[in-house]
Amino acid sequence: MSQAKLTLALSKGRIFEETLPLLRAAGIEVLEDPEKSRKLILPTNRPDVQVVLVRASDVPTYVQYGGADLGVCGRDTLIEHEAEWGGAGSVGLYQPLDLKIAKCRMSVAVRADFDYANAVRQGARLKVATKYVAIARDFFASKGVHVDLIKLYGSMELAPLTGMADAIVDLVSTGNTLKANHLVEVEPIMDISSRLVVNPAALKVKRELIRPILDAFAQATA
Ligand code: PRP
Does residue 219's CB lie within 6 angstroms of at least one atom of ligand 1? Predict the structure, then answer.
């Protein structure tokens, strides 16, 4: 019988970079640099642990279907994934830890010359472009603001600049992207950080492999 292997799903970029120190704390070194290699399965110093590189929004899907045993993804990604499946808790992913990495915030932004506060006060119907449809829908519903949501997959900053939308809902970290595109942040929606997600069946079957990693991550993020 082949030895059980643990698969961790990560996305390239900030999440990958900021997960590395946590993996190190668990005694795991990733042996290839995703910025230099085209490989999608990265070996580690542990023959029983591998990393798979997937799109950020695919991390919950891989873990849900068992393509990966565990993964790291943003709170934003998780909320949107769960909304597709019928709301919080519907997917059955075990979410034991907020890793407090890849921190940023979800915010509403508009063109500097758009009077957002006044539009909201007057009960205007806003056109809002976003990749984060569930988060935007819930947020504006809770404020009692009527919105027409326009789903985009990236470069949301363009929507107000081209006149397609009045506002965007997007992630803001340094604020540089907004500034470079003459947009201003007008309302924060929620703080975002990345979470560890675990496939519940894998947690049962591969407990001896997963538990020490959970413990090391918990200690490193405490
Ligand atoms: C996010 C977000 C903004 C940018 C904000 O994009 O969509 O474009 O980061 O960061 P800043 O405030 O530090 O400028 P990301 O780079 O995650 O890629 P994406 O466009 O694929 O979402």
Answer: no
Residue bearing the CA closest to ligand 1, atom 18: 154
Q: Give the domain extent around 151.
A: 104-192
> Does 138 lie in the same domain as 92?
no
How far apart are alpha carbons 25 and 29 in whole angstroms? 9
156, 198: one domain: no
Nearest to 182, CA basis, from 107, 109, 128: 109
> How many residues can be counted in the chain?
222
Instruction: Tell me, using a 6 A CB cutoff, whether residue 168 lines ligand 1.
Output: no
Same domain? 183 vs 197 = no
- Residues 98, 199 within the same domain: yes
What is the residue-level pLDDT of the chain in tens, covering all 222 positions?
456 899 999 999 999 999 999 999 999 999 999 999 999 999 999 999 999 999 999 999 999 999 999 999 999 999 999 999 888 878 889 999 999 999 999 999 999 999 999 999 999 999 999 999 999 999 999 999 999 999 999 999 999 999 999 999 999 999 999 999 999 999 999 999 999 999 999 999 999 999 999 999 999 999
